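testing teh design pipeline on a random one, pls ignore if ur not involved
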C-alpha cells in the first residue's frame, strides 16, 4: 500500500491511511482545511491578530490521526510539532509511520500518547518533556468534534494547555505566554457543535473571529484543497481560533473546572 500524497499550495506531505482502523486512520476534510489555513497564515508568519509565529513555533496537535496538519506545519517552518493520539498501539504506530515517511521533516516531529481523560497536569508535563520543558505556543486540532462527549473531553484538554502557566511544566511560575488554538472540523451534528461551543464558554476560552474577506469565521469555511491531484467536494467545515479569556475581556467566565 502506497502512502497518499497531500498537497497544500507548494507544500507536499505523504501519509498512509488505513480504513477500518478507526476514525483517526483517514484524513478528513477538516484536516485539509486546517492545513490550508496554516499555510495561508505562514505567508505573514503569524496567526491572525496574535503574535504567535508559524516559522519557529513549537506546536501541539491534539487527536492527530494520520498527522497531516501537524506534518504540514513542520513543512511550513515550525521548530517542533508534538503529534498526539490516544494511547492505542495501532493508532500510534500509524502516526509514527507517517512521520517516518516524511524524512526531511522527521527531526522536527515527535509522536506521543495523550489521553483526554487523563489528569491535565500529567498531559502537560508529557508534552513539555518533548519540547525541552517548554509549553506549546500553538495548538491545532481537526475533526475531533464528532460527538458531544468527545467535544467536551477535547475542549477540557485544549483549555488545560491554553490556561497553563510554566509552573505546570517545570520550575517557578512565570507569566503565561500568549497561546492560541486553531480548531477545524466538519459540522456533522448540531449536538456536537453545541457541546463544543458550550465547552469553550465553560472552560473560559473565547473565539477570535476572522475577518470576513478571508472566508473563515466561527461560521462555515468552504475551501478546496488538492488531494492526490483531485479537488475534494466542498464540505461544511467550521474553523475557529481560540485563546484563554483574559481578565480584561467582557463577560469572562472564571476557569475553575478544568483541573
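output:
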Amino acid at each position: 500500500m502506497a502512502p497518499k500524497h497531500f498537497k497544500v499550495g507548494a507544500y507536499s506531505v505523504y501519509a498512509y491511511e488505513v480504513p477500518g482502523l478507526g476514525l483517526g486512520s483517514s484524513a478528513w476534510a477538516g484536516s485539509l482545511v486546517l492545513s490550508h489555513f496554516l499555510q495561508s497564515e505562514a505567508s505573514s508568519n503569524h496567526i491572525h491578530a496574535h503574535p504567535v509565529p508559524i516559522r519557529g513555533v513549537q506546536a501541539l496537535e491534539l487527536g492527530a490521526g494520520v498527522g497531516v496538519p501537524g506534518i504540514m506545519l513542520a513543512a511550513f517552518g515550525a521548530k517542533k510539532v508534538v503529534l498526539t493520539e490516544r494511547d492505542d498501539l495501532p493508532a500510534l504506530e500509524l502516526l509514527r509511520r507517517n512521520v517516518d515517511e516524511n524524512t526531511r521533516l522527521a527531526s522536527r516531529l515527535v509522536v506521543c500518547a495523550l489521553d483526554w481523560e487523563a489528569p491535565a497536569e500529567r498531559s502537560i508535563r508529557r508534552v513539555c518533556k518533548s519540547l525541552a520543558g517548554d509549553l506549546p505556543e500553538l495548538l491545532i486540532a481537526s475533526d475531533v468534534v464528532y460527538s458531544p462527549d468527545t467535544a467536551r473531553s477535547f475542549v477540557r484538554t485544549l483549555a488545560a494547555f491554553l490556561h497553563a502557566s510554566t509552573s505546570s511544566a517545570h520550575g517557578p511560575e512565570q507569566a503565561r505566554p500568549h497561546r492560541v488554538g486553531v480548531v477545524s472540523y466538519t459540522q456533522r451534528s448540531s449536538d456536537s457543535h453545541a457541546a463544543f461551543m458550550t465547552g469553550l464558554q465553560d472552560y473560559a476560552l473565547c473565539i477570535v473571529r476572522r475577518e470576513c474577506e478571508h472566508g473563515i469565521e466561527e461560521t462555515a469555511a468552504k475551501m478546496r484543497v488538492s488531494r492526490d491531484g483531485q479537488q475534494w467536494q466542498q464540505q461544511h467545515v467550521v474553523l475557529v481560533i481560540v485563546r484563554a479569556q483574559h481578565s480584561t475581556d467582557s463577560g469572562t467566565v472564571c476557569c475553575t473546572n478544568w483541573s
